Structures are given as structure tokens and as C-alpha cells.
């Protein structure tokens, strides 16, 4: 486990999913955490669970710049410093295709997934520039390949990844490191929420996805929120002191290649084009060898 002893972290979207795992992982690693979220009931329960000497919940809608800036100030006011910022808040955004795109929904998606990452990092700089710090941004494997998420979400997440590289270059003079984490298929409520399900049902759907998603990845299991939290904790720690501007894929191998590259039962593009199954291809080979 990473060592975050003596550090103070802000995690947005901290009341559920990856953010909640982040709070649990960071506290276990020795950090004190300011948990920002709009889910007040869950957030207050989180603070009560750990105690306000370890976790402070702050209601924060990251699309509201005054709330986002206040989050930074409250971290320093309560814990005396700010060492780590994990920009994690988000949702699936508008599912519209380019042809049918609702431009207001586009603006809302970009405000939540991309603008707030710019803004939160900007607001954190004054609190980190004297002694350095670590900024971690949650991107997605949809930033590097098509087919995993809707258009606007994917483009926003590509922006998050490239922003991380650009910010790393600009903030290196302050010893502020900036990195992006690119999760793959992680069983969280974001999938149900993107379908318009109420929060409770979205949480239940996340539990169902744990089993359903196992066959989608070479590693043979669905990703857990803790998988992303552990990577973020490492990047936040001094052990990652020489790492900045990176894009860290945590996806169980989903992006290593098409299914036939890791699943020997899959046909591959040539067999698919010919309409031949792997079993039929094997039978054809046996017949040819038999003469």
C-alpha cells in the first residue's frame, strides 16, 4: 500500500464508487481527506464513519466555481494544508450522437467532465506551489479508443488526459505533479446513472455488473473501484515522485487488442469476414491435413 502519512487530500465525487474507494484507501494509507460531493447523506455518513479528524465532507457541485474554490479553502482551513487533489467527480454525460447532439447537454457534460478539472487544478495551485503536490485526474479508456462510451464523454476524457500532460509541464516549476488515470470497465453506479436510473437502482446495477463484466476483459474479472483508488494513491505518494505527465491505464487488459488477441475461442477479423467459426476453421484444417 502507498504511504500517504502526513498528507491532506481532496477527492471529488467522493461519496460513492471510485471516489468512495479513494477515501477509504487514502485514509488507510495515512492521509486526511476532504470529500467533496453533492450526495449529502452519503457524505455526512462518510465523515461520521471516520471522524472529522480524518475525513471532512463538504457539499460541492464541481460545476459551480465558487463551491469548487471554497473546497480548496476549506481543506486548508480544516487540516492546515493541501498536498493532493484528485479530480474524480463525473457522470456519463449526454449519450447523443453527433448528428443528434443537444448542444446544451454538450455544454453541461463538458462543464462537469472537463472544465472543472481545469478549474480545480487552478484553484489548488496557490495552496501547493510553495512545497509541491500531486494532482490526479480521472480520465477513461474511452480517451484512447472508440466504442467504450458516448462521443461527448469520450472527447471530454481525452481532454482530461491531455490537460494532465500540459499541466504537468506548466506546473513542474512548482514541483506539482499531474497525472491521469484511465479506468476501464469498473463496476460503479455511473452506468445505471447514465441510463437515467435513480441512485439506489444505479447502485444495485453496479453490483450486478461485477459478475456480468468478467468476460469482457483478459484478466477475467470486472474492475473494482479499489483498483483505481490504489493507482491514485500510488501517484499521490512520494514513491511516485519522479512521475508526472503520465497516462495510466487500469483496465484489466481491455485495450491490449481485439478479443481474438486474448481469447482463443474468438474468431478474429478474417474468420468473421468469411462467416466461419473457429471450430469450423479447425475442422477445415483437419480435413486438409487428412488429404
From TrEMBL:
Q: Which BP terms does GO give this entry?
A: steroid metabolic process
Record's SUPFAM superfamilies?
Answer: NAD(P)-binding Rossmann-fold domains
Residues in the signal sequence: none
| Gene Ontology terms, MF aspect | oxidoreductase activity
Q: Which UniProt keywords apply?
A: Lipid metabolism, NAD, Oxidoreductase, Steroid metabolism
Q: Name one Pfam family in it.
A: adh_short_C2
Please name the InterPro entries in this protein's record.
NAD(P)-bd_dom_sf (IPR036291), SDR_fam (IPR002347)
Instruction: List the NCBIfam families hit by this protein, alphabetically.
Output: PRK07231.1
**Membership in a protein family:** Belongs to the short-chain dehydrogenases/reductases (SDR) family.
**Record protein name field:** 2,5-dichloro-2,5-cyclohexadiene-1,4-diol dehydrogenase
Amino acid at each position: 500500500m502507498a504511504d500517504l502519512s502526513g498528507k491532506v487530500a481532496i477527492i471529488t465525487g467522493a461519496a460513492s464508487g471510485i471516489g468512495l474507494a479513494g477515501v477509504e484507501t487514502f485514509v488507510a494509507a495515512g492521509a486526511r481527506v476532504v470529500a467533496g460531493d453533492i450526495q449529502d447523506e452519503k457524505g455526512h455518513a462518510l465523515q461520521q464513519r471516520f471522524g472529522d479528524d480524518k475525513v471532512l465532507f463538504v457539499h460541492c457541485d464541481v460545476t459551480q466555481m465558487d463551491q469548487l474554490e471554497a473546497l480548496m479553502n476549506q481543506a486548508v482551513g480544516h487540516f492546515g494544508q493541501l498536498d493532493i487533489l484528485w479530480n474524480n467527480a463525473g457522470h456519463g454525460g449526454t449519450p447523443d450522437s453527433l448528428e443528434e447532439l443537444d448542444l446544451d447537454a454538450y455544454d453541461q457534460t463538458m462543464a462537469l467532465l472537463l472544465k472543472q478539472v481545469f478549474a480545480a487544478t487552478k484553484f489548488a495551485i496557490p495552496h501547493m506551489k510553495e512545497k509541491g503536490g500531486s494532482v490526479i485526474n480521472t480520465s477513461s479508456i474511452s480517451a484512447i479508443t472508440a466504442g467504450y462510451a458516448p462521443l461527448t464523454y469520450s472527447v471530454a476524457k481525452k481532454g482530461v488526459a491531455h490537460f494532465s500532460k500540459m499541466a504537468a509541464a506548466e506546473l513542474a516549476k512548482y514541483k506539482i505533479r499531474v497525472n491521469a488515470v484511465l479506468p476501464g470497465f469498473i463496476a460503479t453506479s455511473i452506468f445505471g446513472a447514465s441510463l437515467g436510473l435513480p441512485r439506489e437502482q444505479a447502485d444495485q446495477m453496479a453490483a450486478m455488473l461485477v459478475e456480468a463484466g468478467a468476460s469482457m476483459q483478459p484478466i477475467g474479472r470486472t474492475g473494482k473501484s479499489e483498483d483505481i483508488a490504489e493507482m491514485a494513491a500510488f501517484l499521490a505518494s512520494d514513491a511516485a515522485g519522479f512521475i508526472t505527465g503520465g497516462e495510466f491505464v487500469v483496465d484489466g487488459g481491455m485495450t491490449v487488442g481485439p478479443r481474438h488477441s486474448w481469447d482463443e475461442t474468438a474468431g478474429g477479423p478474417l474468420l468473421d469476414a468469411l462467416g466461419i467459426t473457429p471450430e469450423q476453421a479447425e475442422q477445415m484444417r483437419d480435413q486438409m491435413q487428412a488429404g
